[in-house]
Design a protein that fits this description.
By secondary structure, the chain is of the alpha+beta class. It has 15 helices and 16 strands. The chain folds into two domains: 247 residues, BirA Bifunctional Protein, domain 2 (2-Layer Sandwich), CATH 3.30.930.10; 89 residues, 3-Layer(aba) Sandwich (Rossmann fold). The strands form three sheets. Strands 1-5-6-11-10-9-7-8 form an eight-stranded mixed beta sheet, sandwiched between helices. Helix 1 runs antiparallel to helix 5 and helix 5 runs parallel beside helix 9. The relative contact order is 0.12.
């Protein structure tokens, strides 16, 4: 028997109720905040992603890379920001009044070790505001992310923010961090030894217990920010406070992707134990330039749909069920089946969701199916009904039955 590949899952109909609920809220709020939809392909030129992180970075190691039949090296989309920036450049969106505000709901693929809330295919809602350095936009995307999650019914959300500086001030901090860590080199976990050489900021992100103590004593990046970055960060905080958004400063927050500058943030459910982020993002003022465009500041976030569903279930949030069919048309005999086929078609044309009994099931098993589909009405057509051009209409909740002429069933159901 085949199974879905490790780290992926099928989304069954009952699970789809969560997806519909989340996607509808997302679309509504994105539109409310002036973000427009932009869809990018499920695979991109490998080099696009290779640009966003140094060799050896997690995102590069985790990428699904393949060559197509022409020998072009491609990668399944690992995250949405780089493809959106590619599309922004490719379609000349920089010619529009800035910022250009875009959103997407996409699958993303990362070859991670599967565990609860960490999959090899996951889905993200992402929002990007491109072409403006105004700190009010940092606050806007944080507010949008928070409002999205809280409007779904999630509570006890913790927003953490930090600033990781810019090209001017970050190198000074990285030097200080390297100097501090060099005295602890022997005590570092194997991953941190690599991080120290390749990507020192990520040292602050290590989850190994043995490295935690070292992280606690590390210099704080906010002590090294240049005056522009400091002013920017203070403004973001001022706007958040004015908007009534509670947040905590976390000077260890550096995020898993390497394109960030200045503001970074994450939101997670509050509580004890290891809490995985429901969403995160930040500013990425150099990325578009690194992809071949003019210097273009930008900020955005993405939230993971599967993790949101886990949180909704943990917090016992009830979501609306998917719409159910209204009518089930049962029949007995060849002629009745013909009439049932015509009736079901007529109901569907009138916008009434209807299911037709198939095969040669007994009336009892047809009614059992109608019950399990949770329909409001069952229409029963037998030989007698065919002869009289009528059908029996059964209200499934009250059990009440009445005989109705064929040509009146659709309008009766429509009225009800
Ligand atoms: P990210 O933090 O890598 O950021 O992913 C965003 C969200 O996707 C995470 O907070 C998490 O909820 C979900 N997620 C990530 N990896 C997995 C996984 N393996 N399994 C399940 N869920 C996952 C980005 O991707 C950035 N592009 C966000 C951004 C947009 N920054 C600026 N603009």
């Amino acid at each position: 028997m085949f199974k879905a590949p490790r780290g992926t899952s099928d989304i069954l109909p009952q699970e789809k109720a969560y997806w519909k609920y989340i996607e509808e809220k997302a679309v509504y709020l994105c539109q409310l905040y002036g973000y427009q939809p932009l869809n990018t392909p499920v695979f991109e030129d490998y080099q696009l992603f290779a640009h966003i992180a140094p060799d050896g970075a997690d995102i590069i190691k985790e990428m699904y890379v393949f060559e197509d039949r022409s020998g072009q090296k491609l990668a399944l989309t690992a995250e949405g920001t780089a493809p959106i920036c590619r599309a922004y450049l490719e379609h000349g969106l920089f010619n529009l009044p800035q910022p250009v505000k875009l959103y997407y709901i996409i699958p993303a693929f990362r070859y991670e070790r599967p565990q609860a809330g960490r999959y090899r295919q996951h889905h993200q809602l992402g929002c990007e505001a491109i072409g403006d350095a105004d700190p009010v936009l940092d606050a806007e995307v944080i507010e949008l992310m928070y409002r999205f999650l809280s409007s779904l019914g999630l509570s006890e959300l913790l927003i953490e923010i930090n600033s990781i500086g810019c090209r001017q001030c970050q190198p000074g901090y990285v030097e200080a961090l390297k100097k501090y860590y060099s005295t602890y080199r022997d005590r570092l976990c194997p991953d941190c030894k690599v991080r120290l050489a390749r990507n020192p900021l990520r040292l602050l992100d290590c989850k190994e217990v043995s490295c935690q103590e070292i992280i606690t004593g590390a210099p704080k990046i906010t002590d090294y920010l240049c005056s522009e970055c400091q002013t920017h960060f203070q403004s973001v905080q001022k706007y958040l406070t004015e908007l009534g958004i509670s947040y905590q400063l976390n000077h260890k927050l550096v995020r898993g992707l390497d394109y960030y500058t200045r503001t970074v943030f994450e939101v997670k459910p509050e509580g004890k134990g290891v809490q995985i982020a429901l969403g995160g993002g930040g500013r990425y003022d150099n990325l578009i330039e690194e992809l071949g465009g003019k210097p273009t500041p930008a900020v955005g976030f993405a939230a993971g749909i599967e993790r949101i569903i886990i949180a909704l279930k943990n917090q016992n949030v009830i979501v609306p069920t998917l719409p159910k069919p209204v009518a089930y048309v049962a029949c007995l005999g060849t002629q009745a089946k013909l009439e049932a086929t015509k009736l079901v078609s007529r109901l569907r044309h009138q916008g009434i969701a209807a299911i037709q009994a198939t095969g040669d099931k007994s009336l009892k098993s047809q009614l059992r199916q109608a019950n399990s589909l949770d329909v409001k009405y069952t229409v029963i057509i037998g030989e007698k009904e065919v002869a009289n051009e009528t059908a029996v209409l059964r209200d499934m909740s009250s059990g009440e039955q009445k005989t109705v002429p064929f040509n009146e069933i659709a309008s009766l159901l429509e009225k009800r």
